[in-house]
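Lecture 7 notes: from sequence to structure.
We start with the chain below.
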Amino acid sequence: MSPVTYSRILLVILALWVVVGSADPAQDRSETREYFKQLFPQLTLQEYADGAYALDPIARSQWLEIEDFPPYEWAVENGKHLFHTPFKGGGRYTDCFPQPINKIRAQYPRVSVEGEVITLELALNQCRQKFQQPMLDYRRGEMAALSAYLAYLSRGEMLEMKTPSSEGEMKSYTAGKQFYYQRRGQLNFSCASCHVQSAGKRLRADMLSPMLGQVTHFPVYSGVWHEMGTLHRRFIGCLEQIRAPVFHAQSEQLRALEYYLSFMSSGIKLNGPAYRK
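Predicted structure tokens for the same chain:
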């Protein structure tokens, strides 16, 4: 069976998963990785962390030049200052994160005993609430800087997500998967329309990145935004591009989406923050 034929068969399988609403996370991940292995046999699993730059040699060369003097360096330094500066009235971020600082990013997202998806950014704002500090914007600014600092310290750490098994984990996983494959908006696109079925193809001048590894390099400095942005800011941007109803950053829906994508990318090393065009 040729790789092209096999890929087409797997695409049908992926579509059937959504229709029947099956939820076997380990099988989902295994079959999805096999699909991408057939689609891009030249890539190792770890190379998916580089997104479209793993597939486009010219864009990769330009990206590596930018990474020599990355525009997110200031955000990492600002995040370091913010993370270690005590809050007014007492307390600091380190009081909320007992893990070694270079292990913090890899602990998220996770599902609490109450069944809620806890992302890194949500945990940072929960820490602020604990010490009566105002909430930060989940999309940019200080939150993106804090996330950039913790991501930078965790570079090379493996994103290791245990297989969903509890009721809360399965509920969040299923919700995230359904969100990813559901068509929506005036363009009738799903996340998978671009990043599974059309991965590696071009949309105008840009190559569409594969699903695998999409969460490992956030937050990013975007050449479009001209500033740092979090993963949920990117989610919102995608919804706007397909003219679909937008969910707010750290909504239950987008946290479930992050949880699903993180499980699918489990086993890939973290490499954030990063530059993206």
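Points to note: The domain at 75-153 is CATH 1.10.760.10 (Cytochrome Bc1 Complex; Chain D, domain 2). The chain has a mean pLDDT of 93.
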